[in-house]
Amino acid sequence: MKIRRGAPRPVLHLRHVDDENEVVCYDRYVYADTGIVCRLLGDAVEITRITGKEITFTFAHGKGKEVQLHPGESYQFVAEIPGLIADGSGWQQETLHVNWIPEEQTEGLTVGTMRKAIGIRLKKVDAPSKMWTSRFFGMPAFSEKDLEQVRSDGGMFLAQINLYEARRFDSADILPKGQYLYLFLHKNPEGYSDGSVIQSWGGAEQCIADFNEKAEIFPNATDVWEAEFFEAEGDYPGTKLMGVPNGWPSWESAPQLLLQFNAKDAPGVTGLPGDEGIGWMFFVGSMEKPEESCWFSKTM
Known about the structure:
Blueprint: E1 11-18, E2 23-31, E3 35-40, E4 43-50, E5 55-59, E6 65-69, E7 74-81, E8 92-101, E9 111-113, E10 117-125, E11 135-136, E12 141-142, H1 144-153, E13 156-162, H2 163-166, E14 180-188, E15 191-200, E16 206-207, E17 224-232, E18 240-242, E19 257-262, E20 278-283, E21 293-297
Parallel strand pairs: 2-9
Antiparallel strand pairs: 1-2, 1-8, 3-4, 4-5, 5-6, 7-8, 10-17, 10-18, 11-13, 11-17, 12-16, 13-14, 14-15, 18-19, 19-20, 20-21
């Protein structure tokens, strides 16, 4: 993004409506940011570029389109699936109403972050309560189909994310569409900064208790921390999915966050540099391909 230093961040009014059921999915004011705004019938409305005078949107529905919005202007993104039955039943339509609020009209508004987050509470347990529970460290559970890929990855197990659990708090429908995400960290010659992700559509059938026995990245990486999800603001400072990376040098350049891990949420699990011990995993490719993610640790 090209926003001059000190310039106010553009404020958008977003209103997402399910027209078929006459339901307002959400209605809020947010600071504009690059990334996916929401999905309409599965197709992404995304902000690709922001300047002080123009915001560029792309919309993947149908033949796709690119839209430029300027201060004070409004636009409606509409996705429609026509009724396939003679009486018209089966019709679906969703609309995203976008309005760029002029700077002089933003005073007094409650403005949030565009990138909402899914907060994660961690609780240390002796063993996972169920095979399919989301967890950090310790014992991952895989399907037989995924085992070969997991073993060839060779990384330290960081997290197992049950996407069915997490999606309940994904109001913008941004998370990948698989059933599980498995996140791994790797040692490299320059430090512990490499990450990898496996997206799985299989069930969690087989638990590997000794997966992290030889892990060098985090002490106590064999302990199991079960995860509980909750809705959070994008700048929530703890462990989370999506949102904005806390402490990133500049909001203009922050890539799309997949996971932020805050070591303070798992006392005894250390290994990240700096007093705050925060690490990030970003989407560096397509949101639909989380396996193209990359890990960075935060140095204070």
